[in-house]
Design goal:
The complex is a heterodimer of chains A (482) and B (258). Helix content of chain A is 23%, strand content 35%. Chain A has 482 residues and is α/β, with parallel strands linked by helices. Chain A starts with 10 loop residues before the first strand and ends with a strand. With 258 residues, chain B is α/β, with parallel strands linked by helices. Chain B is built from 8 helices and 12 strands. In chain B, helix 5 (155-169) packs parallel to helix 6 (185-198). The longest helix of chain B is centred in the middle third of the chain and has 15 residues, at 102-116. The radius of gyration of chain B is 18 Å and the shape is globular. Classes of the chains: A alpha/beta (482), B alpha/beta (258).
Chain lengths: 482, 258
C-alpha cells in the first residue's frame, strides 16, 4: 500500500461560475459582414461622418488582410460571415439616462457577477462602466469625476460629446491596418470606454470597465481609448466574463493608451472569459490588441494582466517608449488549464533616450493547457541608454501541459542594456508533501504555491482586485490536483 | 489527568520497498506517551524511510506489517489527516516554496489543525501574537516570518524553522529526521531547547540522528540502532555513547551472524 497523496495531475474540475445566460430581449443584426453592416452600426449609433469613413477605411484594409498564423495556438478557421456584429439589449429609445433607467435584469446580471454597480461601487471607490454585449450600460460616478475634469464614459457617448478628442487620438496608437483583428475591430466596434484625464489631474478614483458577452453567435468588439494629458495620473481596471456555450465566440478588442509628458497610466486586466469545458468544447477566442504610447517625456505606462479565461488568448499589451525618459512595465499572469491555449506577452519599443522597460511574465500550465510567452524588446538607434529587464517564469502542473517562450530582442544602439531571465519549474511532489504534512489540503497547497509564484504580479493590482485575482486563480485551477 | 504510558505509536514487523529496493525489513517499535526515543544508525540503514512512511511520503510500498497511531491504522490515513491528528515530521531537507510567506504557511497549517479539532481559527492578529511569543521563547528572529518559506534560508535557518513549526503546532508525536545534522553548537542548542520544551507526559518524540551529540542536550528514554532495515539493538542512553565510541560496524556484523 502506498500513501494516499493525491496526484498533482488530477485536481482540475470546478465549473465556470459565471456561465449563466440573461434572458433579455436584444436587438441583434443578422450574421455577416459587408459595408452595409458597417453603415448600419454607424447609423445605429448616430455617428458623425468621420467615424463612418474611418470604419470603412478599416474594413477595406481588413478585406485585404490574412488571418495571422504565427501564434502558438491551434483552432479551426473562423467563418467571419457567421458572426453577428451587433447585439444590444432592447431598450426604451436611446439608452439609459441613469441607473434607474437600466433594465433591472441587466443589473441583476451584474449583481450575480459581483460587480459593484450601486452602493458597493461607492464603498469600493471604483467607478464602473459596464459593457453588455455591444452596448455600454451604465457608468457610475460620472458627476464626481466630472468635478475633477475627468471624462469617463461609454465610447459611443464620447463620439457624440467629445468628437474632437476622439478624432484627435483614435487610431493614433493602433492604426486601422495594424493587424487583422485590430482592423476588424476598427470596422465594427460597437462600444467601449473612453477616458480623458486633463493636464495635472490625478484621477480621484480607480476606473473600471466590466465586459460581458451574453447573446449567442455574437462577437464582442469593444474599443477603449485612454488619454492622460501632461502630469496626470490614472489607474484603470477591466474585468470580463461570458456565459457557457458550446460554440466558440470571438472577442476582438482594441485598447489604446496615450500618455503625454510626465503622465502615468496604469492599466490592469482580470480576464475571465469562459474558457471552454474540460474537454475543450466552447470558450471565447480572445484576440486583443492593446498598446500604449508613452508619447511624452518621462511618461509611464504599466500593464498588469491576469489572464485565467478564454479558450484562446492572443494578446500582447505593448508600450511604445517614444518620450525621453519614459518607461513601460508589463506584469502578467497567464493560466492555461484543460485545453486552453494562451499566446501572450508584450512588445517594448524603445525610441527615446534613457527609456526603461520591465517585463515580468508568469505562465501557469495545467491539464492539457499550452502557454506561450512571446515578447519583443526593440531598441532603436536613437534610444541611448535604454534599459530592459525581462523575467519570464513558467510553472507546469502535470505531464500533459506545455510552456513555451519566444523572446525576441532587437538592439540597434550600443549603449542599451537588455537582460533576460527565464525559469521553468514544476510544483514538486516534495512541496506538496511538505504542505500536506503540515495539515494543509492538496487543493489549498496548490493554490498557495501558485499564488506564491504569482506574487510579484498580484502585488501590482489594486488591493480589492488582487484578492479577486487570487480567488479566480483558485477557481480556475480547481481539479488541477487530486 | 495525564496520558502517560498510553501507546502512541506501534510499528509491527514493517517491511517497506522503494522501487526494487527493500529498505525496511521487519521493523518493530513501540513508543508511549511521555517518551523520547532516539533512532540511530549508519547511512542507508532506513532511518529516513521510516519517518517518511510514518508521515505518508509518497514513493514507498508497504509490503507487510503495519503501524498504528493512537490505536488507528496509521498507514490507511492520508498524509494531511496524520498531520491534523497531531503527527509532525521535521524534515531533513525542508522544502522551499518561493513567494509564499513563511507566516502564511504557519497560519494555514495551524488553522487547518484547529479546524480539524473543531476549534475556531485564529485571525491574523491573534496568530501573530502567538507566533511572536513562540519566536521569543526560541530566541529566533522575527524576520524569519516574512520571507518565502525556506527561500534562501541557510541550513541552520531551515532547521530552526522546522522547530518553530513544531513548537507552534504542539504535536502529539514529533518525528525529527536528522534535524541536528549540519548545525553549529548554538543552533543545536536551540533545536534541543525546542524538543525539551515539547516533552510532556502526553506527547512522544522520535529523534532520528546520525550522531549522539544532540543526545547530550536531549536525554532520550530509549535508544535504538537501525541497521539493514530493522532495529538490531535497543537500550538506554548509554547505548548512544557506546555507538559514538565503537561505531556501527560491530552491530552490523552482529546482524549478519544472527
Amino acid at each position: 500500500m502506498s500513501a494516499k497523496q493525491p496526484e498533482l495531475e488530477s485536481l482540475v474540475a470546478r465549473k465556470y461560475r459565471h456561465g449563466f445566460v440573461t434572458d433579455i430581449a436584444s436587438d441583434t443584426v443578422a450574421p455577416g459582414l459587408d459595408e452595409d453592416v458597417i453603415r448600419f452600426i454607424s447609423a445605429k449609433k448616430g455617428e458623425p461622418a468621420f467615424m463612418l469613413d474611418w470604419r470603412l477605411k478599416a474594413y477595406r484594409r481588413w478585406m485585404r488582410m490574412e488571418v495571422p498564423t504565427w501564434a502558438h495556438v491551434h483552432y479551426p478557421p473562423i467563418d467571419f460571415q457567421e458572426i453577428s456584429y451587433y447585439s444590444a439589449p432592447k431598450q426604451n429609445k436611446d439608452g439609459p439616462k441613469s441607473l434607474a433607467d437600466v433594465d433591472p435584469k441587466l443589473l441583476e446580471t451584474y449583481d450575480k457577477l459581483g460587480i459593484p454597480l450601486h452602493e458597493r461601487a461607492r464603498l469600493a471607490g471604483v467607478a464602473v462602466d459596464a459593457v453588455f454585449d455591444s452596448v455600454s450600460v451604465a457608468t457610475t460616478f460620472k458627476e464626481r469625476l466630472a468635478e475633477a475634469g475627468v471624462i469617463f464614459c461609454p465610447f459611443s457617448e464620447a463620439v457624440h460629446k467629445h468628437p474632437a478628442l476622439v478624432e484627435k487620438y483614435l487610431g493614433t496608437v493602433v492604426p486601422v491596418g495594424d493587424n487583422f483583428y485590430a482592423a476588424l475591430n476598427s470596422a465594427v466596434f460597437t462600444d467601449g470606454s473612453f477616458v480623458f484625464v486633463p493636464k495635472g489631474v490625478r484621477c480621484p478614483m480607480e476606473l473600471s470597465t466590466y465586459f460581458r458577452i451574453n447573446a449567442s453567435k455574437t462577437g464582442q468588439f469593444e474599443r477603449t481609448l485612454i488619454v492622460a494629458e501632461e502630469g496626470s495620473h490614472v489607474s484603470y481596471l477591466e474585468g470580463c466574463t461570458a456565459p457557457m456555450r458550446d460554440e466558440n465566440q470571438l472577442h476582438a478588442a482594441v485598447v489604446e493608451l496615450v500618455a503625454l509628458d510626465d503622465a502615468e497610466i496604469k492599466y490592469s486586466t482580470v480576464q475571465n472569459w469562459y474558457p471552454g469545458d474540460e474537454n475543450g468544447v466552447g470558450g471565447i477566442y480572445n484576440f486583443v490588441t492593446k498598446r500604449g504610447d508613452c508619447r511624452g517625456r518621462n511618461s509611464k505606462i504599466s500593464w498588469t494582466q491576469v489572464e485565467t479565461g478564454s479558450a484562446i488568448t492572443w494578446k500582447y499589451p505593448s508600450c511604445i517608449l517614444r518620450g525621453d525618459g519614459s518607461s513601460g512595465v508589463f506584469h502578467s499572469v497567464a493560466l492555461a488549464n484543460h485545453y486552453q491555449q494562451a499566446d501572450t506577452g508584450t512588445k517594448m519599443i524603445h525610441m527615446g533616450r534613457n527609456t526603461t522597460s520591465t517585463i515580468i511574465s508568469k505562465g501557469i500550465s495545467a491539464g492539457h493547457g499550452q502557454n506561450a510567452y512571446r515578447g519583443l524588446v526593440k531598441v532603436l538607434p536613437g534610444a541611448d541608454g535604454a534599459r530592459n529587464h525581462t523575467q519570464c517564469d513558467s510553472l507546469l502542473m502535470g505531464p500533459h501541459c506545455g510552456a513555451h517562450t519566444f523572446p525576441y530582442i532587437e538592439v540597434k544602439n550600443p549603449t542599451a542594456v537588455v537582460e533576460h531571465e527565464a525559469t521553468t519549474s514544476k510544483i514538486s511532489d516534495d512541496q506538496l508533501f511538505y504542505c500536506l504534512q503540515r495539515g494543509i489540503s492538496a487543493e489549498d497547497a496548490v493554490n498557495m504555491i501558485v499564488n506564491g509564484f504569482c506574487r510579484q504580479v498580484f502585488r501590482e493590482l489594486p488591493m480589492e482586485f488582487a484578492v479577486e485575482a487570487q480567488n479566480l486563480l483558485a477557481v480556475s485551477l480547481e481539479g488541477a490536483v487530486g | 489527568m495525564s496520558d502517560a504510558g498510553r501507546t502512541i505509536l506501534e510499528v509491527r514487523d514493517l517491511k517497506v520497498r522503494a522501487g526494487e529496493r527493500q529498505i525496511l525489513d521487519g521493523l518493530s517499535l513501540t513508543v508511549r506517551a511521555g517518551e523520547v526515543h532516539a533512532i540511530m544508525g549508519p547511512n542507508g540503514s532506513g532511518k529516513s524511510t521510516l519517518t517518511g512512511v510514518l508521515a505518508g511520503r509518497p514513493g514507498f510500498e508497504v509490503v507487510s506489517g503495519g503501524a498504528t497511531y493512537l490505536g488507528r491504522d496509521l498507514l490507511a490515513m492520508a498524509p494531511e489527516e496524520r498531520a491534523r491528528e497531531g503527527l509532525f515530521l521535521a524534515f531533513q531537507y525542508p522544502v522551499e516554496i518561493p513567494g509564499v510567506n513563511n507566516v502564511y504557511l504557519l497560519k494555514a497549517s495551524l488553522n487547518a489543525l484547529r479546524r480539524h479539532r473543531g476549534e475556531p481559527e485564529l485571525d491574523a492578529f491573534e496568530f501573530l501574537n502567538l507566533v511572536r511569543s513562540k519566536l521569543a521563547e526560541m530566541h529566533m528572529d522575527e524576520s524569519l516570518l516574512n520571507r518565502g518559506v525556506n527561500e534562501g534560508f541557510s541550513g541552520g535557518e531551515k532547521k530552526r524553522n522546522e522547530i518553530l513549526q513544531m513548537t507552534l503546532l504542539q504535536p502529539t508525536l514529533a518525528l525529527l529526521d536528522e534535524t541536528d545534522s549540519g548545525l553549529d553548537i548554538d543552533a543545536l542548542k536551540l533545536v534541543a531547547d525546542g524538543v525539551n520544551a515539547l516533552r510532556s507526559p502526553d506527547r512522544a518524540i522520535v529523534l532520528v540522528t546520525h550522531y549522539q551529540r544532540l543526545l547530550d542536550h536531549v536525554v532520550p528514554d530509549r535508544v535504538h540502532v537501525l541497521a539493514g532495515g530493522r532495529i538490531v539493538k535497543s537500550g538506554g542512553r548509554e547505548l548512544a555513547l557506546e555507538l559514538e565510541q565503537r561505531g556501527y560496524d560491530w552491530l552490523r556484523e552482529g546482524t549478519a551472524a544472527a
